[in-house]
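Thread: quick sanity check before group meeting

JM: Hey all, I'm pulling together slides for Thursday and realized we never actually wrote out the predicted structure for the chain we discussed last week. Dropping the sequence here so it's in one place. If anyone has concerns about the input, flag it before I start.
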Amino acid sequence: MSEVDYLRTWLFRSMMFEAEAETFRQAGVRVGVDETESERSLLNEALAPFPLATRNESMRMSRLYSLIYCFENSVRELIKSRLTEKDSNWWDECVPGNIRKNAETRKKDTDENSWLEGAASDILGFVDFSGLSSIILGNWPEFEDLIPSQHWLKQRFDELERARNFVAHNRMLSDPEFARLEMYVGDWNRQVGL
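JM (edit): ok, ran it. Output follows.
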């Protein structure tokens, strides 16, 4: 069998397996590697050298980090979705100049100088957290059907930004702070229909 024939056969079998595996997945049968268990195992291995108390705190904080990550990126998606409906050139037309310039500078610096190859190719991913609320407030008519008031938005974003920055510098939050952040994100999700 030639190399080309071998590759064709391999590709055909792979496609057939994936098609059959998808049928099993849709029926609720787990097929393939359990990524969750693999990730958990890799995490346990990476954290093993550190004291137990520190590892436990990190696991608690990872929940909060995940919540803030999901919240922040859902806000970006909402902004992009709403402003794209308004104007296909929304970035230039709807984003305040100082926010746009800062994000473009950060993106350019990342493109030119960074060894990191993250997935943040969307320019909105380079907007600071506070910039997100400024974009919404600057385009209030596009968001007022979702959000009770500008004051409501500002209050929650200010609180979430403080916590986000606290967490980003690897500092532990108290239980009441955890609860308040979860409440604010829950409020946001209900307001925007998540």
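AS: nice. The first helix runs from residue 3 to 26. The chain has eight helices and no strands.
JM: adding both to the slides.
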